[in-house]
């Protein structure tokens, strides 16, 4: 999620293109809705017609949050760490589901993009670096972000993998009350209460032995998906070229639920397990 200044301009062009396409759809949809409404208005209804005329001047206006995102990515020399093809995987799902509830483990220069693509929905970002959160908040105060702490380290991954195979880790319960060592229990209350449509795991830091690693974030994302009342959750894990992200996503999000892998990004679609308690943890 952290910026890499040396990213090439083609990714920047893609992001700008995505926003332009989104804005065009927004304007066209608003114009279409307005014209359809006018078609059914009585010709002698001046009050209704006046309202429609006012709406035609405002309904298609670009929302300030989207305008800021477009300006930022047009003028910024910093681009997200995910590649063009990786970003497309999540953006396609957002096109179908937004506005929706989107939880992102990680906060960075791509966060404004995700929030804008989920315009009208709720996007929450979680990060382990309080100083970094304050830096991003000063630049993008409209983003909803929270500081979280992790009590695990990458060098404990093997131990946590074994612990995760116990019955307490496959029980379908609210993550905050889980008895599993992998369950994250100190997240903000709303993170547990919201039914998430998408979850992105692109944090915490996981590239050295003393880093917190993404073991608990991956496990908790999978359990939140299984514990929702109904429906399914799209879960994305970035950096699956690394050992922890590779093994833990396969073990706790399951090969059978994987829809696609593009570069370093894996996409899983996990159904609710509460509507069928006999459902195995991973599909056979």
From TrEMBL:
MF term (GO), any: methyltransferase activity
Cited Pfam families: IRX15_IRX15L_GXM (PF21729)
Protein's membrane topology: Single-pass membrane protein
Keywords linked to the UniProt accession: Membrane, Methyltransferase, Transferase, Transmembrane, Transmembrane helix
Predominant cellular place of this UniProt entry's protein: Golgi
Entry's Gene Ontology cellular component terms: Golgi membrane
Keyword Ligase on entry: no
A GO BP entry: xylan biosynthetic process
UniProt-annotated location(s): Golgi apparatus membrane
Keyword Transmembrane helix: yes
NCBIfam families assigned to the protein according to its UniProt record, in alphabetical order: A_thal_3515
Name of the protein in question: Glucuronoxylan 4-O-methyltransferase 1
């Amino acid at each position: 999620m952290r910026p890499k200044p040396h990213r090439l301009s083609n990714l920047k062009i893609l992001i700008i293109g995505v926003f332009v396409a989104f804005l065009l759809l927004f304007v066209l949809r608003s114009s279409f809705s307005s014209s359809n409404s006018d078609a059914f208005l009585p010709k002698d209804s001046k009050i209704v017609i006046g309202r429609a005329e006012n709406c035609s001047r405002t309904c298609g206006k670009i929302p300030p949050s989207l305008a800021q995102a477009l300006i930022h990515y047009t003028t910024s020399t910093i681009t997200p760490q995910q590649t063009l093809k990786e970003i497309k995987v999540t953006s396609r799902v957002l096109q179908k589901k937004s506005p929706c509830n989107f939880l992102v483990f990680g906060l960075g220069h791509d966060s404004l993009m995700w929030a804008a693509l989920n315009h009208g929905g709720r996007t929450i970002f979680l990060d382990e670096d309080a100083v970094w959160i304050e830096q991003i908040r000063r630049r993008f105060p409209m983003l909803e972000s929270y500081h979280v702490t992790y009590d695990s380290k990458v060098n404990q991954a093997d131990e946590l993998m074994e612990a995760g195979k116990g019955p307490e880790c496959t029980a379908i319960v609210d993550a905050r009350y889980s008895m599993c060592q992998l369950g994250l229990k100190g997240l903000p209350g709303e993170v547990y209460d919201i039914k998430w449509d998408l979850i992105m795991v692109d944090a915490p830091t996981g590239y050295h032995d003393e880093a917190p690693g993404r073991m608990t974030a991956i496990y908790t994302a999978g359990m939140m998906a299984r514990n929702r009342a109904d429906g399914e959750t799209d879960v994305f894990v970035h950096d699956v070229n690394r050992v922890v992200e590779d093994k833990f996503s396969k073990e706790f999000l399951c090969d059978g639920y994987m829809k696609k892998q593009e570069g370093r990004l894996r996409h899983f679609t996990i159904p609710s397990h509460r509507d069928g308690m006999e459902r195995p943890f991973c599909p056979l």
